[in-house]
Amino acid sequence: MKKSLIVILLLSAAYISKAQKLEKPKIDKITGDTTFSTSKEIITNKVGLIYDYLGVKTIKTKGDVFLSFYISKGITMLYSVNPGDKLILKTTDDKVLEIKSIASQNSDFTHSSANTYSDLIALYPVSSDDLIKLKAGTIKVIRIETSKGNFDYDIKLKNADIIKKQIELITK
User: Fold this and answer.
1) Residue 64: HSE in the Cβ half-sphere, 13 Å Cα cutoff
2) Is residue 89 one of the residues assigned to a domain?
3) Between the chain's N and C termini, which has fewer beta carbons within 10 Å?
4) How much of the chain is in helix, strand and coil states, percent to nearest 5?
5) Is the residue at 15 inside a domain?
6) HSE-up of residue 152 (Cα within 13 Å, Cβ side)
7) Domain CATH number, residue 30
8) How far apart are CA 97 and CA 82, in angstroms?
9) Which residues contact 130 (CB under 8 A, 6 or more apart)?
10) Tens digit of pLDDT for each residue in 139-154?
11) What pLDDT digit, counting tens, does each position of 20-64 carry?
């Protein structure tokens, strides 16, 4: 009984500590610039579809902060996020924050033993004003504009502060 309790405690501690961490900084061999990033965290996942999720990672390089969204769709559909397409974040107090994409990103097909799915990484620059707003609010809805229309994600309360915690970690 004691051993079982210890194992459960160790496993739950490992799970909790995984929640937010800063990855090892990467130093460019030519310029010497250092890039800091958090671990990728899944913030929403459709039940029963392991390949249909939205993940987020926060990156800081040369003083600039970026939100990097990992979009995985459990279907075979090609789509893109283009410069000017918006990331729209709605907070629990109904404030809306819009951030425009700065680069073109196209989805790819990924094949697994059980499924073929499409995925894409979308990158959004975060201004100083947006950083303040993201630290102050709790996100409840994320909309990502794509070439195939809007992808909307409802964020559960237990995952609502992931972006806020990542930004706090990366801007220390």
Assistant:
1) 9
2) yes
3) N
4) 20, 45, 35
5) no
6) 4
7) 2.60.40
8) 18
9) 97, 99
10) 999 999 999 899 999 9
11) 688 999 999 999 999 989 998 988 876 655 567 888 999 999 989
Contact 56, 162 (CB under 8 A): yes
CA distance 139 to 96: 9
Q: Kindly report the backbone phi and psi dihedral angles of residue 112, in degrees, each rounded to the nearest multiple of 5, phi listed first.
A: -125, 175
Q: Which residues pair with 88 in a beta bridge?
A: 98, 143
- Could you tell me if residue 14 is inside a domain? no
Tokens linked to 81: 């996020």
The model carries a pTM of 0.79
- The number of CA neighbours under 13 Å toward the Cβ of 40 is 11
Q: How many domains does the chain have?
A: 1
Q: Ramachandran region of residue 164, left (φ > 0), alpha (ψ -120 to 50) or beta?
A: alpha
Q: Which residue has the tokens 């499409």?
A: 118
